[in-house]
Amino acid sequence: MAIRGNWEQRRVEAVSRMGEIDRRKFMALTGSSAAALIFGYAPFTEKVWAQPSFSGYPFKLGVASGDPEPDGGVLWTRLAPEPLADNGFGGMPRDRAVEVRWEVAKDEGFRRMVREGTTMARPRLGHSVHVEVSGLLPNREYFYRFRAGNATSPVGRTKTAPAPGTSLAEMSFAFVSCQQYEHGYYTAYRRMAEEDLDLVVHLGDYIYEYGPNEYRAPGGNVRVHEGGETTTLAAYRRRHAQYRSDRDLRAAHAAFPFIVTWDDHEVENNYADEIPETGQSPEAFLERRANAYQAYYENMPLRRSSVPQGPDMLLYRRLAYGDLAEFNVLDTRQYRDDQAAGDGNDPPNPEQQDPSRTLTGDEQERWLLDGLASSGATWNVLAQQVFFAQRDFQVGAGQLFSMDAWDGYIGSRERISNFILERDVPNPVVLSGDVHNNWACDLKADYDDQTSETFGVEFVGTSVTSGGDGADTSTGQQATVAENPHIKFFNGQRGYVRCTLTPETWRADYRVVPYVSQPGAPVYTRASFVTQAGNPGLVPVEENPVQGTRNSSTAIESDAERAEAQREADLKQR
Ligand SMILES: [Fe+2]
After folding, report:
1. Average pLDDT rounded to a whole number, residues 248-258
2. How far away, in angstroms, is 145 Cα from ligand 1 center?
């Protein structure tokens, strides 16, 4: 995918405008020695381990690729012969760098090699490597692998984006979010890896920060987190390593390039910029955020432009896929104002409606609107974390909204919605995660006036595991659908959403698995919706009856239950 514009310039500008403030604050708070350690200002003392002999297979975390461009993409791995080692170095020496060879070929057997080279896996970045390969052909499949010492990595498959402006007949991708390891098995990833996709978009909650069994699924947990609540760099590294120990997750990474962004649990539940949920000093929280961001960067196939600078990391970015789609990948955590009204489900309130409050930060909002204004793509995608459309939980008179979602930041939502309406931005599609259930919505000019203009659609994807098995629906969730006429669909099972785009239509298939409490579930399409280019709004295509589970169950983790379970988990930590 082509990253448009002068990326380095944007990075410098973004960091100098937003980052410096936090960084100065952080340096003042933590002292320069901690800052030097985290920012890497300390002298470069590592030696090279010339002929490494690892204590085990060093590629246990697998391989990944990401952010495809027409001429290449990011190839990732992280050396970790003992992934859960206490010190966070995965069984690698903490003072030695290791040379890693990388190879890209047209075939899985690596007979037709097209690019190769070497890079260093450095202890400062947890012996991760992020190769930005270029010189590949657009819209092509490639295979890649790594070598270190005598070991060879598993083979990954990736695919480059079409050349800029190319007229593309079709593309398909899946999006996912929320993979609490303890809540179930990653069967959805196994089934996804069996599909034919161009790429995968991850919308956040890749890991959860909780200690063992602090956050319980309604049906109970089936796996257990290693180590306590994550706050240190070593602990976040180990948590990422534990999640990658799941072979189905590794299979999905090896099968498709990923475009990733985070939500809150990569750091801490419901944090907002530098404000922790509760019970931590600003100093401790910023240090924690720096640790979490660093471990996230180390473990994701991201570009150098996302290398963290202490507690700051530039993650929002734009990727184009021919003339068919432009993905605006948002970060709705790092720059947001604190949640209104103490962060819960609340009735309309002045803080929520205060137009000066922001979910994206001013800089990212300007960047998004500029991108939407200049896009030439048929489909303009906002790949982001939290529920965008209005969602009133209060059945009957009165209204109740989630203060953590766009409903808690009315000014932000209205600025973006009004811009799309005024500029006639074609075919906006919002992709969301966070809520551990499937939803589908029309986007309205005014949600309280259902005769107002529909200007786009939102697909909210369920979790991979968070919330446990779940069930199809419940009377409570159906009441919420009825209360909000622009919301067309609810389902409470686990899975992913597969999207197929053509110049005329966008089809979303809600792919669900009947259970995650045991491995090996089948997958099926619970419902499909289409939206037509130039004619905003959802058109239901088909709904399929639930297979292999009950139609209606209270085992669905509702929003209130999710919030309560996470609040209880937070209390257990203290
Ligand atoms: Fe989540």
Report:
1. 98
2. 31
The half-sphere exposure of 543 on its side-chain side, counting CA atoms within 13 A, is 10
Residue 352 CA from chain centroid, whole number:
25
> Which helix or strand (DSSP H or E) is residue 260 part of?
strand 257-260
Distance between Cα 368 and ligand 1 center (Å): 24
CA of 468 relative to ligand 1 center, distance in Å: 12
Stretch (H or E) spanning 4: none
Distance 434 CA to ligand 1 centre (A): 5
Using the mean position of ligand 1's atoms as its centre, give its distance from the Cα of residue 371 in Å. 28
Size (the chain), residues: 574
Task: Tell me the CA distances in angstroms from 194 to 295, 434, 545, one per residue in order.
Answer: 29, 25, 23
* Rounded distance from Cα 142 to ligand 1 centre (Å): 32
486-543 pLDDT tens trace: 999 999 999 999 999 999 999 999 999 999 999 999 999 999 999 999 999 999 998 8
- Distance of CA 479 from the midpoint of ligand 1 (Å): 23
pLDDT given for residue 572 in this prediction: 80
Q: Are 513 and 523 in contact (CB under 8 A)?
A: yes
Q: What's the number of CA atoms in the CB half-sphere (13 Å) around residue 449?
A: 5
CA of 342 to the centre of ligand 1 (A): 20
400 C-alpha vs ligand 1 centroid, how far in Å? 20
Q: What is the pLDDT of residues 404-432, one digit of tens each?
A: 999 999 999 999 999 999 999 999 999 99
pLDDT band for position 12 (50/70/90)?
very low
Question: pLDDT value at position 278?
Answer: 78
What does the alpha-carbon distance between residue 423 and residue 41 come to, in Å, rounded to a whole number?
A: 45
